[in-house]
Amino acid sequence: MTKRLEISRDIAALPELVYAAISDVTRMGEWSEECRSSEWHEGFDGPVVGATFDGHNRHGEHEWITQGKVIAADPGRAFAFECSMMDFHFSTWGYRIEPIELGCRVTEWNEDLRPESVMEFSKQLSGVDDRTERNRRTMNGTLERLADALEN
What we know:
Elements: E1 3-11, H1 15-23, H2 28-31, E2 35-40, E3 52-59, E4 62-74, E5 78-85, E6 88-100, E7 103-112, H3 119-126, H4 131-151
Antiparallel strand pairs: 1-7, 2-3, 3-4, 4-5, 5-6, 6-7
């Protein structure tokens, strides 16, 4: 059962600047509470469709690595990637950027693709009981930190 969550925030920065920040996965640790760092796989050094990377995640004492694959890279407009673990695509994350009068509206979205059969493993791995509520909170924080960095 796919669950989709979207959080939007207006940011007083040019859409191209916002895109440059969020599509540089090596900077994700600056914005995200859970994804502490990311690095491109060999052969990739930037956001192009098909590029892959590792994301290093942490929640409390729980740590895990996911593999990301860029599925949308439209400068100033959209960035999205699939998240997998052990070749299992469990989630898709993305950002839509829309110009507004004083900058842009950034919408971070997530599709949780985990079937019921992996929920217990997922909870044990991440230490997160309610993934939807945690994502809602951390997405708000991500957009807040992104705005703080780009508006100053």
